[in-house]
Amino acid sequence: MGAAPIAEADFIRSVADALQYISVYHPPDFVAHLTRAYEREESPTARSAMAQILVNSRMSALGKRPMCQDTGTVNVFVKIGMQARIDSRRSLAELVDEAVAHAYTDPANPLRASIVADPIFERRNTGNNAPAVTHVEMVSGDRLKVTVAAKGGGSENKARFAALNPGASIVDWVLETVEGLGAGWCPPGLLGIGVGGTAEKAMILAKESLLAPIDMTDLLARGPASKLEELRIEIYEAVNALGIGAQGLGGLTTVLDVKIATHPTHAASKPVGLIPQCVADRHMSFVLDGSGPATFVPPSIDLWPQIALAGAGETRRVDLDRITPEEVAGWKAGETLLLSGRLLTGRDAAHKRMAAMLDRGEPLPVDLKGRAIYYVGPVDPIGDEVVGPAGPTTSTRMDPFTDQILAATGLLVMIGKAERGPAAIDAIRRHGAAYLIAVGGAAYLVSKAIRSSRVLALEDLGMEAIREFTVEDMPVTVAVDATGTSIHTTGPAGWRRPQIRAGGAPVSA
Ligand SMILES: O=C(O)C[C@H](O)C(=O)O
């Protein structure tokens, strides 16, 4: 007699519950590896960023609110036993999408809807984060193994592929590629590498490799038992020697682990996919056998270290309602500021609209003169929150608009995460502006500095609308000052170490 059929409702409920679970709880292996990296970190700025990420992670677990404002694209991998049966007339993708809609609109913990339908033209938010990206594989057995992941856009944007020559070095390609990624993928995190098969197979292998347990600490302690493990250690050490560090600030740890999955390939080929995983590492697996929905037990809060964040001390306080070009000119790259007052928000879609309005000679819906703008798309609030988790988004996406907006509006300050490109840095210097960063992946913690929030303009853009926040003592770091000095250049340069190949030879790349 075969296994009992899996009820449609059990499948939907299990996927929805898993999505809610991973939005608030980091996997224990991630917390353990990040804690170890934090304890060993010698770069004060990187260590402080890691402290904020760990405190944020614990707060999310306690408050049952998302660890990151970017609650991700839902990726689902379903392995269906050849003898399993799902009692439904709908497609598996439809069931997954119903679960996504349930999870993301759950009134107890609404997650941010980030998916836009029609990626080329309208880019209209679907409102419930569906559809997901669902992969199905038929395997032996009579059960269903489901893995759900919620992958942030910043790290997904840094996915890379190369069709290498069979004799080319994977290590050299990974090093060159990771150096070029910048910090928009929110390190410290993981690298997923897929090698072999075909172009699309290498990318899926890279993505799936990120779902394996994080075990670099054990691997380093016991030593490699295979050539693949040797390669993992070699890449792990070589990438960390680049000195990129947490949030690209320069430091000892950029990656907590390196995962590699392989598949046989054509004699002429060596396809390689690389997908980084940001600090919002969110995934879990469960099995359905027809006996009911999966259940998920919250982890013990003892999993997290208790870290006291440094007090304000002598930190410079900034009144956002009275900033002047002279004051901004006095800020130095690397300095910590505590911001209070009114802060505008705007990100990708708002910048595109504002640039189009300026091109047409139209007035903007908000006056940016002398103001600060925060690149953020927050989660909706619940209960007595004024806003949900609201961490910074990757600023380089706003680079193409920066010169035009600074020149046309008199905007003084931008706040986001990770580095700016050369053209944006040049514009910041020419206009006497400044670029500040908050810690990516510390969204719930950041939201605690926000005292009020209201939508000011472009409401149709949903989470991308222009809002006005009132903030109190919001901690940020000056990343590009008015002289054009960038901490994302000076920081990593100070922490870069010589590359040593397995066997002792220096890496040529
Ligand atoms: O969409 C976002 O909020 C952020 C995105 O995950 C990013 O890292 O840039």
Automatic annotation (TrEMBL):
GO terms for molecular function: 4 iron, 4 sulfur cluster binding; fumarate hydratase activity; metal ion binding. Its EC number is 4.2.1.2. The keyword Iron-sulfur applies. It catalyses: (S)-malate = fumarate + H2O. Keywords: 4Fe-4S, Iron, Iron-sulfur, Lyase, Metal-binding. Its cofactor is [4Fe-4S] cluster. Gene3D superfamilies: Fe-S hydro-lyase, tartrate dehydratase beta-type, catalytic domain. Coiled coil: none annotated. The keyword 4Fe-4S applies. SUPFAM superfamilies: FumA C-terminal domain-like. Pfam families: Fumerase, Fumerase_C. Residues 489-509 are annotated as: Disordered. GO terms for biological process: generation of precursor metabolites and energy. Residues 13-286 form the Fe-S hydro-lyase tartrate dehydratase alpha-type catalytic domain. Residues 290-490 form the Fe-S hydro-lyase tartrate dehydratase beta-type catalytic domain. Belongs to the class-I fumarase family. Catalyzes the reversible hydration of fumarate to (S)-malate. NCBIfam families: ttdA_fumA_fumB, ttdB_fumA_fumB. Homodimer. This is Fumarate hydratase class I. It comes from Aurantimonas manganoxydans (strain ATCC BAA-1229 / DSM 21871 / SI85-9A1). The lineage of its organism: Bacteria, Pseudomonadati, Pseudomonadota, Alphaproteobacteria, Hyphomicrobiales.
